[in-house]
Specification:
Blueprint lengths: L13 H58 L12 E4 L5 E8 L4 E9 L5 E10 L18
Antiparallel strand pairs: 1-2, 2-3, 3-4
């Protein structure tokens, strides 16, 4: 054996350890960025859900106030909310009104006062406000030569 030759060290070299460490740091950085983006989108979704719930319950409170007014005999219009009232064939009075619940929805309420004086809730429902406009931009082939 030659005395000038040194034996090679066994195991990892410093270069390969650095590459593995760099790969691990890169993976952890990507994972952290993805976690941050996911948390941000979940926060935005929670904020939108809270806004929708808040507007619904504000409309529900307003509709309950109008219900109490009708129950006490006050049938007049209330600012921007119009109360429609009419008498049915059976002699019962029917009331209906819509309370806005956001930009595209309204809380629709229909009440009936029987001859006995009892006020019954027929509908208390969240509906779409405004008219629905269908998309008719697709030209369909109906057969034949065109």
């Amino acid at each position: 054996m030659d005395k000038n030759k040194r034996p090679r060290p066994m195991g990892l070299n410093i270069g390969s350890a650095s590459i593995i460490m760099l790969f691990a740091v890169l993976c952890l950085t990507v994972l952290a960025v993805l976690s941050l983006l996911s948390a941000n989108s979940q926060y935005a979704l929670a904020e939108r859900s809270a806004d929708v719930a808040r507007t619904y319950y504000e409309a529900d409170t307003r509709a309950a106030e109008i219900y109490e007014r009708i129950k006490n005999g006050d049938y007049g219009a209330d600012g921007e909310i119009e109360i429609e009232a009419y008498i049915t064939d059976g002699g019962a009075a029917t009331f209906s009104y819509e309370v806005p619940a956001g930009a595209r929805q309204a809380l629709r309420v229909e009440l009936t006062r029987a001859e006995t004086g009892e006020l019954r809730v027929d509908m208390w429902k969240l509906t779409e406000a405004g008219d629905w406009i269908p998309d008719e931009s697709i030209n369909l082939w109906l057969g034949g030569d065109e």
